[in-house]
Amino acid sequence: MSISAADVNKLRQMTGAGMMDCKKALTETNGDFEAAIDFLRKKGQKVSAARADNATSEGMVAIKVSADGKNAKLLALACETEPVSKVEDFKNLGNSILEVAFSKNPSTKEELLALSLADGRVIAEAIVELTGKIGEKIIIQTYENINAEQVVPYVHSNGKLGVLVALKGVNGKDVQEIGKDVAMQIAAMKPVAVDKDDVDPTMIQREIEIGKEQARAEGKPEAMLEKIALGKLNKFYKDSTLLNQEFVKDGSKTIAQLLDGHTKGLTVTSFRRVQIG
């Protein structure tokens, strides 16, 4: 059957898909709009599957914090190229997903993907549809849901790096500025844990073994290797655990000292650092 330009444009307005894709969908479904929409969705699924191994090194990180500052949600929506990350449909989808996360409070990314957007579409399906429309792999790279006495957010200027800092011992003080300083520290210095006791034991053992090998390569006696390795481990704690790191804005104090100096007992209980690319 003959497909009119008006019908193609109507389907394009309904779906946001390209003109040629809309014409093909209507041709394949004999002008049935509902079937054509399903055809386009299936095309999206095929595109998504075909690009499944493609790297997603661009995208957006968005954060929303509750009015009382006790809960925050972070969403990292990733795509393949920078131009797509700036497309309004991509940004709108990311923000819409974050709103659903905020209102429904899912615990995991899997739970979030199964929820529905305000327009009724399941989030997982909406991502597939946009994949079909744009022709690029799109995924929820990370979803974080964090609760604390006070959560302070930070999103880097490039929109691809976000941090959440969970604080306790606030004692009624305004901790937004110092919390942001700590969040920026995390963004820049990439700590692996909050404190020494939070470091993964496997990582600790690896650092000890590396320290021993370095000392051995330097010709140190075997009897001294363990002691030397433990000394290097202490440096690892100082460089790689948040509370023991030197504050980047003032190297005379650690993050632990910075926080305690602001408010006695103020500290970090956890953090999340999420980066796309």
Topology readout:
Layout: H1 5-15, H2 19-28, H3 33-50, E1 58-65, E2 71-79, H4 82-85, H5 88-104, H6 109-113, H7 123-134, E3 139-147, E4 150-155, E5 161-168, H8 176-189, H9 201-217, H10 222-240, E6 246-247, E7 250-254, H11 255-262, E8 267-275
Helix pairs in contact: 1-2, 2-3, 3-7, 5-7, 9-10
Task: Please tell me about this protein's structure.
The chain is of the alpha+beta class and 277 residues long. Among the domains are: 5-50, Helicase, Ruva Protein, domain 3 (Orthogonal Bundle); 52-147, 2-Layer Sandwich (Tetrahydropterin Synthase, Chain A). The chain contains eleven helices and eight strands. The strands form three sheets. The chain has a three-stranded antiparallel sheet with strand order 1-2-3. Strand 4 (150-155) and strand 5 form a beta hairpin. Helix 1 packs across helix 2 (19-28), helix 2 (19-28) crosses helix 3 and helix 5 (88-104) runs antiparallel to helix 7. 35% of the residues are buried.
Structural class: alpha+beta
The low-pLDDT segments are none
Question: What spatial order of strands do you see in the largest sheet?
Answer: 1-2-3
CATH homology superfamily of the domain at 52-147: Elongation factor Ts, dimerisation domain
The value of Rg in angstroms is: 25 Å
